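One chain is below:
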Amino acid sequence: MTKGGMESVEVFTSEGKGRGLKAQKEFLPGDVIFAEPAYAAVVFDSLTHVICHTCFKRQERLHRCGQCKFAYYCDRTCQRAAWLNHKNECSAIKKHGKAPTENIRLAARIMWKIEREGSGLAEGCLVSIDDLQNHVDNFGEEEKKELRADVESFLEFWPPQSQQFGMQYISHIFGVISCNGFTLSDQRGLQAVGVGIFPNLCQANHDCWPNCTVIFNNGNHEAVRSMFHTQMRIELRALSKISPGDELTVSYVDFLNVSEERRKQLKKQYYFDCSCEHCKKQIKDDLMLAVKEGEGKPSAETVKEVIQFSKDTLEKINKARLEGLYHEVVKLCRECLKKQEPVLGDTNIYLLRILSIASEVLSYLQMFEEAADYAKRMVDGYLKIYHPNNAQLGMAVMRAGVTHWHAGLIEAGHGLICKAYAILLITHGPSHPITKDLEVMRVQTEMELRMFQQNEFMYYKMREAALKNQKIHVMPEPSNETSPSLFHKKE
């Protein structure tokens, strides 16, 4: 079964997994298998006034909808593009007196689209909204309570003149949002800013070592002629060579966790038992739990103690980060590393987590040399664990490259930036804003490296002057989130 722009994939029944997607032709790493616009999407409640409600880009100054005073847009182009989906919402918000939560807004947008187009197959969709999994039967008590509250709020918001839906159908839509909501990020890909439903993407099954990745592309409305505008969409991209007939898989969770933990997370959030190769054979678990080898090999008791200490420290770090106490975070990281270093192996995930936080926060505090040392160790560990074309790996290597540049370590910095660029060309593609930024950094560091090799003294003099103009940005404030996960799950 194929449909507009989806000729290269087909839906099939995957043994033990229900529906899945299969390749109809060969793909190479970096190929876009398909791009899909959102069936419906909304900005998170906490960011409604700083993110464009059409393209989900973060902007300094946004235009507010004059009618409902709730929706914000980059410009008239984005506002016009939004009107079909915003029209009903606009008058409902005015009547209701205020905007409801993101979950209610997303359900309402889905229902208005169904009212306009029917619930059958939408253009370019391989499956209808009715056929998406809702897992309501698997909900625990707490989830059922939330669902009932959502349905009640929805009914209060939903206008009487709109098409009326039965309670069971409304529950189905909320169930679909709960299991299939996809996280939308800002144009830098660093912050989760909204949630959308993409029916075709929902058909891709999970694998902890997938052959595809999903990247959110905010589209481009800046071209003078609107025929060159591209809409916001997700892109399913190949990470490795895919042959016709191969199943297309994506990872719903970050790989940087032992198989038992990933399986627990998948069961809790998506209600299935992962039976992928990496989970069945516990591939890479030994690396993720590695301890120091050799003469002074630590006892099992010592390892257990250090891991418990690491877990406790990570909790304290989270609390300090939330309060913006970054010097406290650094102190906690240093104490933890002192305990970890004689006991845990270089690829142990507890060590890597602390190294990652330490390098990010120290960069923000502009203590670049210490940050670069930790970033290098983190990347060395990541390279042994992650798939070579993993988006999270690419972002971590990029961060490490920029940190090294700031520390004045131009050779290592340029090498890391080149490595990150090679990964992101595959995971994000050449036209993504992050890849474009990285290309600028790559050219700049290459030029600086040549200068450095010719005359070190002159290089440092020029560098001092250049730093006053700050070409490569100082690190953003550390976020309390890891990079956005694939599917948005209401915690």
User: Anything to note?
Assistant: The mean pLDDT is 89. The first helix runs from residue 76 to 96. Residues 38-236+252-270 form one domain. The two ends are 35 Å apart (CA to CA).
